[in-house]
Amino acid sequence: MNTVFLFLLIFIYFINIIYTINLNYTLLSNTKQKTKRNSSINIWIPSVGTTWNWILNSEDIESDNNVDVLDIDLFDVDAKTINKLKNKGHHIICYFSVGTYEKWRPDASEFLKVDNLVRDKMEEWNENYIDITNPYLKPIMSKRFDLAKEKGCDGIEPDNIDIYLSKKVKKWKIPITVEDQLSYDLWLTTEAHQRGLSIGMKNDIENASKMATYFDFAINEECYDYDECSNYEPFINMNKAVFTAAYGDCCDKKFLDKLEKNTKGKNLSIIIKNEDQELVEDYVKFDPDNYDYDEICNGKKTTTDSTDSSLKNIMKYDLKLENV
Q1: What is the DSSP code string of 152-188?
Q2: 223 or 309, higher pLDDT
Q3: Once rounded to an integer, what is the mean pLDDT over residues 38-58?
Q4: How many CA atoms lie within 13 A of 103 on its CB side?
Q5: Where are the alpha helices (H) located in 238-276, listed in sequence order?
Q6: Does residue 148 form part of some domain?
Q7: Are the C-beta atoms of residues 93 and 157 closer than 8 Å to each other?
Q8: Is 5 domain-assigned?
């Protein structure tokens, strides 16, 4: 009996090795294809130091935002607004979820037509996980990429590409594995690049080193809070921007000191947003290499667009910023 058990363990071990080799071969093959594709299609890749703002809860976006990139909601902002923003010199990243079902989206009914595609409710958001291994999901997502192209987006922010980490997903009869996630991610990058769109890696910091070659930039929330920002070095080394959002009160010195300590020298494009995580237009640029608490708290480095503003109104009272 012990011999049989040992044999099974050895067999499983070698199967895992073969699977890993096959996955790495797939990644390598896709790298070669991506390199060839990018040489013939002009895909925008934001470089290290590119400035940005993240505005997912506003349809009326000011065109004079003093940043290079505006990250906006694919469905909430129309093509006319996107064109206006691009004419002002902004590159536009369009956000949509690729790992969850949102019942308020115009294509929500398409998800419900597929048996067992929509699964458990998320722990913190009014969304449901979806089975990313279901082949009928891809046509739905392909239409979203088409919409992004039609509206004039330059890049894509694909949210929820880390559902394999969810405790609820891990309890599925057939849970999503990290291999499933990486395979889906590669498909997403292909869909974007075939349309001439760049695509960013949203969070999933555990796989940043593996996927930096395929994604064109990264978007992270709060890597500083867990001292994980160094995981994005592969992106930085390839001169790909890492857009970083921090949530907090800009007169909270403990928060700012921690943000500085864990991001200094890492070349991240950092903005501070309201601590309630409402991604409205107000934001604060944060440069850890030139950090001055008094200047930030007093509002001298706070902006809604191209004007300096009163910082305390953003973070403490959630009011519209006032010019100073």
Answers
A1: T-SEEEEE---GGG-HHHHTSSSPPPHHHHHHHHHHH
A2: 223
A3: 87
A4: 8
A5: 253-263
A6: yes
A7: yes
A8: no
Q: Which residues contact 151 (CB under 8 A, 6 or more apart)?
A: 74, 77, 78, 79, 82, 94
Give the global pTM.
0.82
pLDDT at 290 over 70: yes
Q: How far apart (Å, rounded) are the C-alpha atoms in residues 32 and 323? A: 50
Q: Quick count: other Cβ atoms within 10 Å of Cβ 89?
A: 11
Q: What is the pLDDT of residue 10?
A: 59
User: What is the chain's percent helix, strand, coil content, to nearest 5?
Assistant: 40, 20, 40
pLDDT of residue 33: 41
Q: Do residues 279 and 71 lie in contact, with contact meaning Cβ atoms separated by under 8 Å?
A: no
Residue 221: which of 82, 95, 78 has the closest Cα?
A: 95
Does residue 11 sit within a domain?
no
pLDDT per residue as tens digits for the range 264-277: 999 999 999 988 77
CB-CB contact of 116 with 69 (8 Å): no
Q: Measured on CA atoms in the order 228, 265, 302, 280, is the torsion positive or negative? A: negative
Which one-letter DSSP state was computed for residue 72? E
Between the CA of residue 248 and those of 8, 113, 130, 186, 260, what are the distances in Å?
Answer: 51, 40, 31, 33, 13
- Count of domains forming the chain: 1
Q: Phi then psi for 287, rounded to 5 degrees?
A: -115, 105
Containing structural domain, residue 108? 41-315
- Please give the Cα distance from 303 to 297 (Å, whole number): 12
Structure tokens at 106: 């115009």
